[in-house]
Amino acid sequence: MTHTHSFDEARWIAALGTAIDRATAADPITPGIRYRSGTATLAFCVDASGAISDIRVIEGSGDDSLDRRAIAKLRRAEPLPQGPAGAARRTHLAVVQVAEPVRLPQQNDEKRRILTIA
């Protein structure tokens, strides 16, 4: 069975891809700062109104924090372009690259003062 799409629906699907790619672009990396990074593959549904629902992690990054960041990046794509009349709810996949700076524990001010005086 082959699926046929109207020209308007094909244009909508392309517009969805562009909006999702823009929202899930790779995080900027600043030289000299340590990062942890990963890639998460997400499945999600888009209805004709452009609303995203049913986001699922299909293949995680191995780090729950990075997976949550990937989902948040996808959510930033909303609202997506509206579909043409009669457009069906669609399931999509997105591969999202994420990076977070590694936060090192900070010494409290008292310890810093002692080290400076000594």
Describe the fold and architecture:
This protein is an alpha+beta fold and 118 residues long. It has a single domain (7-103), classed as TolA/TonB C-terminal domain (2-Layer Sandwich). Helices cover 32% and strands 27% of the residues. The protein has helices spanning 7-23, 64-75, 109-117; strands at 35-46, 52-59, 90-101. It has a 3-stranded antiparallel β-sheet, covered by helices on one side. A hairpin with a 5-residue loop joins β1 (35-46) and β2. It is elongated and about 55 Å long. The chain starts with 6 loop residues before the first helix and ends with a helix. The model has no long low-confidence stretch (mean pLDDT 83). This is Energy transducer TonB. It is found in: Membrane. It is a single-pass membrane protein. InterPro entries: TonB/TolA_C, TonB_C.
User: CA-to-CA gap between the ends?
Assistant: 78 Å
Count of runs of 4 or more consecutive helical residues? 3
| Low-pLDDT segments, ≥5 res | none
Q: Helical content, roughly?
A: 25-40%
- Name the quaternary structure: single chain
Main beta sheet strand tally, sense and closure: 3 strands, antiparallel
CATH architecture: 2-Layer Sandwich
Would you report the number of β strands?
A: 3
The CATH class turns out to be: Alpha Beta
Order of helices and strands: HEEHEH
- Structural class category: alpha+beta
* Strand content bin: 25-35%
CA gyration radius, whole angstroms: 21 Å
Query: Strand order within the widest sheet?
Result: 2-1-3
The pLDDT mean sits at: 83
The 3D shape can be described as elongated
Structurally, how many domains make up the residues?
1
CATH topology value: TolA/TonB C-terminal domain
